[in-house]
Structures are given as structure tokens and as C-alpha cells.
Design a protein that fits this description.
Elements: H1 2-14, E1 37-39, E2 51-55, E3 58-62, E4 71-77, E5 83-90, E6 112-119, E7 122-131, E8 136-145, E9 153-157, E10 165-168, E11 174-180, E12 182-188, E13 200-203, E14 206-207, E15 213-215, E16 223-227, E17 230-237, E18 243-249, E19 257-262, E20 274-280, E21 286-293, E22 299-309, E23 312-315, E24 324-326, E25 354-356, E26 394-396
Length: 407
């Protein structure tokens, strides 16, 4: 059976229908230098718009996945440096037949800018599903689970909140900061399943550059925090070559002051480090996971320390990136791991490294046409004996460089 599956996958790969990883798992990129330091990026692949939380001794990170299914990949780490996949927040998109490639397709749509939080024993992932490369309104979604591995329940809101940042306040109220250029705050019901009040504008206007207001670079990708009684909202501006801004206020509805907290592109000029989330360690230290567009490989996540200066979270070394840092102090040594990028296909289910580029068709299988052959919870919509056009195809996490010399 294993040999048949591998032959089929090789055939499909030769036809360009699947993208298998081609390097041995032990040779993939890992940022851990083994000497108490790490070198960015955390993951050498497309893991855009990251957000990160800590629950006890465990860290979890979520990423944008757009039209790929399952969606909103969730990773786990013990030290913020070594990561592995644990699941997905979205099984499929059933709100539009075009996710099934019926009447069209929705490439580059799906989940955008996921925000992850843990509150009262439950995990929450919020994201938006825009249309038309973000130019048209879609929906706001909230996924809720007892475990990060799932199962997840998804609530689809009739309202639309672009690039949502979820905040559970210490008085029990729940807020979403959202918008592009103009930022809004919308309050949700205490169970985070419905909108409680109309959105209120908290910020408008753009930047000329990283240091001056009054231009056309608006903020988006908001993440919200309540720290020592103050509200902080971190946002990128400037697009691919952008920078990271922080807003601060004594009230969730403002008024807000702003401060530049990172402006650097040294590791892949001219593309700046921008957009992501921050997390506090048990010892009180803060770290920020922030992405950078690396061209064809995608938007890779980087980890930088946070230093508080005059009440502002300054990233890296005074807002600049050093690429290599001392690892976060988590109190124990963690094993060196990376997300899987290969598969021996020796299980009756697909590994977490596999996604479809739209909803799969559950009536079809992945194999050479034998109905008794290998089945998966996300069965393939094609077979080697019956190739069709306009169908979702299978793809694997992008293979990563074998060594730092590949950078």
C-alpha cells in the first residue's frame, strides 16, 4: 500500500499537481544554534501575519493561510524558537460555493490576519475573510476550542472587521480592534459570539514615512493588549517595506498617542520587519514574533526581544534587528524541532504539513483509482486516472534550506 501511494504521489508531482518536500526532515532549517542563541527566521517558509500566546509553559502561534484548507495553522513551542504543527482552526470554508470551485474560485481570499487569545479555559482565533484581495467586504469569524489541537467551532459573523485584533479586558468585556488606514474598536458579547455595539473610530490618517504623519501609508494588522492599566495596539504601516507602530491610551476608545517601535530591513533589504504579536514570559520578559517578506519564499516569522522604554515596547535592539539573539529564558532546555516538510505516507491520515488550495471534494480519494486504497480526512479531489481542471490541489509546506549557508 505504501509503495502504491508513493508511486501515485510521484506521478501527481510529475504532473505538477502536488508539491512534495524534497529534503530529509533532519536537514530542514532550524533557528536554534545549540549554544543558547538562535538565528532568525524562526521558520523558513510562508507563515504570514503571525500572532502568539502563552498558556502556562506552552506557546502557540497562528498564521494566515488564505484559501488553503485546512486553514489557520496552529503551531506549538516550549521556548518560542523551536516550533511544530499541532492543528488548524478551520476545517473548510462553507460560506461561499467558490471555495468549492463552484462558479469560480477564491484564490488569495479565505482567512486573513488571524488573532489568537486564551481566556477562561478556551482558545480563540479571530480572522476576516475578505474578497477581491481585501478590496471587498467579507465576514468576520471567531473560532473557539477547548484545546489548540481542536476540534474548533467557527462562528461566522454578518459583520465585517478587517485585520481583527482580539482583546479580552480584565473587566470581562471583549473588544476587536480592526480596520485599514482608519482603525475602529467594536465590542463583542462576553462569550465573543456576537457583536454588542457599533464600531467606534479610534484612529485615522497615515504616515509619510516611519517618522512622519500625514501621508498615504495607513496602519492595519492590529493586535491589542492591556498592560499595567494601559491599552496598547501594535500595527504595521508602509506595506512590504514597512515598519511597526504602537498606539497607547488609558482608554480602549482613545485618544491614542503613537510611537515607532521597529524600523529595520537589514536581513532582507528593502523589506522591513512588520506585523505580528507579542507575548510575555513567566519571568516577565516580553518577545515579539514579527514577519518579513522574503520574496518567493513568502513572509517568514522572526523573533525579537522587547525592551520597555518610557512605557513603550521597543523591538530588537533599540528598534533595529540583530538577526541572532540569546534565546528566551523559559527556565528549561527544549528539544530542537521543526514542522514536518516530508511524508512517508505510512498513516491513513495526511500529516499536518499538507493543505488543499480550496475545499477538497470528500467524494474523491488520493490514489491510483482504487476505491479500496488510502483514504484521508481531507480526501483528494483528483486521482491519477481521472485528472480534471478547476479542482483543489494538494500542497505541502515549502521545503526549507538545509543550512544557514543556503540563506
Amino acid at each position: 500500500m505504501k509503495r502504491r501511494i508513493l508511486k501515485t504521489m510521484l506521478l501527481l508531482a510529475g504532473l505538477g499537481l502536488v508539491q512534495p518536500a524534497v529534503q530529509a526532515q533532519q536537514n530542514v532549517w532550524n533557528p536554534d544554534n545549540g549554544d543558547g542563541t538562535f538565528t532568525n527566521p524562526l521558520l523558513w517558509g510562508d507563515w504570514p501575519d503571525p500572532d502568539v500566546i502563552r498558556v502556562g509553559d506552552d506557546f502557540y502561534m497562528v498564521s494566515t493561510s488564505m484559501h488553503y484548507v485546512p486553514g489557520c495553522p496552529i503551531l506549538h513551542s516550549k521556548d518560542l524558537v523551536n516550533w511544530e504543527m499541532v492543528g488548524y482552526a478551520v476545517d473548510c470554508y462553507d460560506e461561499d460555493p467558490r471555495y468549492d470551485m463552484q462558479g469560480g474560485n477564491l484564490y488569495l481570499n479565505g482567512s486573513w490576519a488571524a488573532s489568537m487569545r486564551y481566556h477562561n479555559g478556551k482558545y480563540y482565533v479571530a480572522f476576516c475573510t475578505p474578497y477581491g484581495w481585501g478590496r471587498e467586504k467579507g465576514n468576520f469569524c471567531m473560532c473557539i476550542a477547548d484545546r489548540p489541537e481542536g476540534p474548533w467551532e467557527r462562528v461566522i459573523f454578518p459583520e465585517y472587521m478587517y485585520d481583527p485584533g482580539l482583546l479580552f479586558d480584565d473587566d470581562g468585556r471583549v473588544f476587536v480592534v480592526h480596520g485599514q488606514g482608519t482603525l475602529y474598536v467594536t465590542e463583542l458579547t462576553p462569550d465573543a459570539r456576537a457583536v454588542k455595539s457599533e464600531p467606534r473610530q479610534i484612529w485615522s490618517g497615515g504616515f509619510k514615512n516611519a517618522h512622519e504623519l500625514g501621508g498615504g501609508f495607513g496602519m492595519e494588522g492590529a493586535h491589542a493588549y492591556k498592560i499595567n492599566g494601559k491599552y496598547y495596539i501594535t500595527c504595521p504601516a508602509g506595506g512590504t517595506e514597512g515598519w511597526q507602530i504602537c498606539l497607547r491610551s488609558d482608554d480602549i476608545y482613545g485618544p491614542y498617542e503613537h510611537h515607532l517601535i521597529m524600523n529595520d530591513s537589514i536581513s532582507y533589504p528593502p523589506n522591513g520587519l512588520h506585523q505580528g504579536g507579542m507575548v510575555q514570559l513567566k519571568n516577565g520578559d516580553w518577545w515579539f514574533v514579527i514577519m518579513q517578506d522574503r520574496g518567493p519564499i513568502g513572509r517568514v516569522p522572526n523573533l525579537v526581544p522587547v525592551t520597555w522604554k518610557d512605557g513603550w515596547p521597543i523591538l530588537g535592539h533599540e528598534g533595529k534587528d540583530a538577526v541572532t539573539y540569546v534565546k528566551p529564558e523559559v527556565g528549561k532546555r527544549s528539544r530542537v524541532i521543526s514542522p514536518a516538510t516530508t511524508d512517508e505516507f505510512n498513516s491513513r491520515t495526511l500529516g499536518l504539513q499538507w493543505q488543499w488550495n480550496h475545499n477538497p471534494d470528500p467524494k474523491r480519494i488520493i490514489a491510483s483509482g482504487d476505491p479500496e486504497s488510502w483514504h484521508t480526512p481531507y480526501p483528494c479531489c483528483i486521482s491519477a486516472c481521472n485528472l480534471q481542471s478547476n479542482v483543489p490541489l494538494l500542497q505541502c509546506s515549502c521545503p526549507e534550506p538545509r543550512s544557514r549557508s543556503a540563506l
